[in-house]
Amino acid sequence: TVNGATAYVPRPVSQTLYRKSGDVHGSGANGTLTCSTCHGGSHALWPNQDPNANDNQTAKQLQGYDGNIAECSVCHVKDDFKTGLVATDGGSSGLGVGQGVRDGTVVDSSSAKAYLAGPHGMHPVGDESWYKNADGAAANTAKDASKKFNGGWHNDFAKKAGPDGEDQCAACHGADHKGTRLSKTLTDRTLMNAKGAPVKVIKGQVIGCDLCHTLAKSFTDSPKGEAKLHAPPKPQTFSLEATPATGGTTTGTTGGMGGMGGMNMGGGTTTTPTTTPPTMSH
Fold it and tell me: What is the largest CA-CA distance in the chain?
């Protein structure tokens, strides 16, 4: 953003970001969240441009403003990240949430492998434990840094490489660390720099690493690897067979969606009923 004008630069993104049909940052039986959980229905993505639309009410009630769900506090309790809970070690797959895999165990910054484990591999959003203070986080190293706060987990994880040795910050903040549309704030916020001074940002502002410190500091010891494309999980094959009330059969086999009532969406084959469905009466 320069002089109030924002320009969006095209960036390649992982195939899994939009094609895996679910976010796996959660753990346990209900760990996978469908896209609509945070972004709204596939044909009614949040926000609705009408500020008073019903589509916007869910987000407003949960986080105080419209748009996709971005505040960690919607699902997490206060201080959930105060002692960690922000990264995994990749387990046997060696991949992180950003690559569409929830594997391994939760780790802190002392782990050689520490992949950010928020939605789409993000860091906590709107949580002071990330940018202000966290139990066990390393202290700010700036000469004029405040002694009251340690800077949160940001200091510990900013230099941690992703599964491909890539700069995890660059995924959203850009290879130049000046920000992209993926690092745009969805609401007004007040953050804090190393000195303890407030840093105010407004809704729609693209957040770059130079908002709070120099780019030189941002790139010091930052990972130099290159992120690779990780193919999404393959669709599961299934078969559907139904017998209409008046006889005849409908069958379908597909490699993805399809095979329902003669609709073939996944490259499979279908056979439609040869009889007329019964007349409905009330």
Answer: 82
